[in-house]
Amino acid sequence: MGPGARPARPAGSRSGRHRRAAVRPARPAMNAQEVALTGAHGVRLAAIREGANPEAIVVFAHGFLSDKHALGRFDRLAARYVEAGYSTLRFDFSGNGASGNAPITDERRTGDLRAVLDQVETWGYQRVALHGHSKGGSISLRARDPRVSAMVLTGARTAPVYYDWSEHLPADVLTGIRTRGRGRSPATGPRAFHLLTQQSLDDFATLDTREILSAIKLPVLLMYGDAPHDREELLLAEHAACGMRYLSPESRLLIVHGADHSMEGHIEEVADHGIAWLRTYCPA
Predict the structure, then answer these.
(1) Per-residue pLDDT, 30
(2) Which residues contact 4 (CB under 8 A, 6 or more apart)?
(3) For 264-282, what is the mean pLDDT?
(4) 158 neighbors 7 (Cβ within 8 angstroms)
(5) Percentage of residues in the chain having pLDDT higher than 70
(6) Which CATH number among 3.40.367.20, 3.40.50.1820, 3.30.360.10, 3.40.50.11060 corresponds to the domain 25-162+208-281?
(7) Domain ranges of the chain
(8) CB-based contact 155:261 (threshold 8 Å)
């Protein structure tokens, strides 16, 4: 399938990965500190800072309707990075998790990430890495921030993907977007809803592979699963393979065998690869 192909409906439920699943209890963090940051549009961003390294930090960027815990996966990954000697920062994009309310768009998220990196710079870190998942991986690429030394991305979208949104969002949400310009998608955890606009949906189909990837001059590790039932993840991996020629020579594409888009059940393997990558390109 090429970049214009429509992925099959994600397995598991009608709404697939775009509807927020019930939040699992987060793993307690060691030496973790809740901090409040400010996004690019003045929205309060909830965050967790962890680790004792004053020079090297890994900043996490979560998926579309997710949050800084990512159903506990980011908590486990952060713990592994801290054990490897890094500090970490997990935050909720505006409109997600415990952050302030705002429409969810790529433009806002890119601004949020850059604003977070501004804050990280004031803390005095000399080496910064990004760990992004799914939409968070795409936003990490869009931000193309020169202060970042390396990226570890899982399930990142590197080319346009076209969805039949009626298979992923409730009808009343789509009606609200069509008639009022905004729809409220039910959420769980600290917020009642995610605020979506037509731009929220259009962003998935508006990514110029060459423009985005050729602007990235740092080493990027891209990881994808190859679970046969997850046709969308296979499509994302195919897109990434086609786009590798635009990335730096050091960048790599790695397949996590048996994993689906969530990487659930393979988090330790993802952590192993991520830590090895950062030890080379963004040492603690």
Answers:
(1) 58
(2) 160, 162
(3) 98
(4) no
(5) 89
(6) 3.40.50.1820
(7) 25-162+208-281
(8) yes
pTM metric for this prediction:
0.90
For residue 38, the one-letter residue type is T
SS3 225: strand
Count how many residues are written for the chain: 284
Mean pLDDT computed over 146-152: 98
Record the tokens describing residue 119, joined without a space.
Answer: 């804050």
Rounded CA-CA distance 195/21 in Å is 16
**Strands annotated E in the chain:** 33-38, 44-50, 56-61, 87-91, 127-133, 148-154, 183-186, 193-196, 220-225, 252-256
Q: How far apart are CA 57 and CA 129, in angstroms?
A: 6
Exposed e or buried b per residue across 88-127, where buried means at least 16 C-beta atoms within 10 angstroms of its C-beta:
bbbbbbbbbbbbbebbbbbebbbbbbbbbbebbeeeebeb
The upper half-sphere exposure of residue 60, i.e. CA atoms within 13 Å in the direction of its Cβ, equals: 33
Mean pLDDT of 66-74: 97
Which amino acid, residue 145? D
